[in-house]
Amino acid sequence: FLKPIEKINALLELYPRGMAGFARYCELMDTEPDVKDAPDAIVASRLRGDIAFERVTFGYENHSHVLKGVDLRVRAGETVALVGPSGAGKSTLCSLIPRFYEIDDGSITIDGIDIRHMTQHSLRSQIGIVQQDVFLFNGTIRENIVYGRLGSTEEEIWDAARKASLEQMLKALPEGLDTFIGERGLKLSGGQRQRLSIARIFLKNPPILILDEATSALDTETESLIQQALEELSHNRTTLIIAHRLATIRHADRIIVVTEEGIEEDGTHEELIVAGGAYARLHGAQFAGTTVPLPV
Ligand code: ATP
């Protein structure tokens, strides 16, 4: 009886729906996952988060290759923004880091260790994923936050809530952290749900972060609260941002332009402006006051 529940829990945590068309829940329930732990897989201790793709080739089953021989290095603690046309493979590239899919060729290492040599659990416990489609269950705010790390203390939960810009909201609720959410209680807005998921990740405290930026518009205040929380969250962590708007990119150490041909540009904001390529055109258009939505 417990097995399927454990499986559901693991899936909800590890296979968020929004990213790169993660295999659908039902499919996963019915079939064995393609990605399996190697018999001699190691339990990775805390990683620093130095990520290296070497000649990585990947295609979804029955589809031609989405990524062909991609080389990419993201150093520990670095923030890298991925921009590019829809369908170029930004989400796919990110979903290979937690090993949601098996690559066809090349290798992905973290701190020099091939991710295929780590247990999936120990790998994924070091990666936090923030995306638009937040999974919350019917329960209290406290239960939903503590899901990030079961057994967290009251102080740790409040600290995470504060860093995720949730404190003000919690103080305005008569039952605070013990307020029920979902069908049985408070209906949270999209921005509040996202901040709650950010609080969870503060508790989880992973060395690697993947941020799949919201495409839907949030009001300015919510937007700035989330930006603030995300900046704090990405501090001292290796962060990959799948960016849809230029505002987020300003804080990135590097910007990578992904197109169907592969990684077309890679550099700092200043370098890419000087290079005068795709990113510079996009930026120029925005600077001129024209609203050009990402992807380019
Ligand atoms: P967007 O900016 O729209 O999110 P993206 O750059 O993140 O796009 P991906 O979502 O990685 O692009 O998709 C890359 C290619 O892989 C696309 O052609 C897409 O249709 C295909 N694709 C994505 N997920 C799957 C899947 N689960 N099965 C088959 N093909 C997929």
From TrEMBL:
It is a multi-pass membrane protein. Keywords: ATP-binding, Membrane, Nucleotide-binding, Transmembrane, Transmembrane helix. GO terms for molecular function: ATP binding. It is found in: Cell membrane. Residues 51-285 form the ABC transporter domain. This is ABC transporter ATP-binding protein. The lineage of its organism: Bacteria, Bacillati, Bacillota, Bacilli, Bacillales. The chain holds residues 283 to 578 of 578 of the full protein.
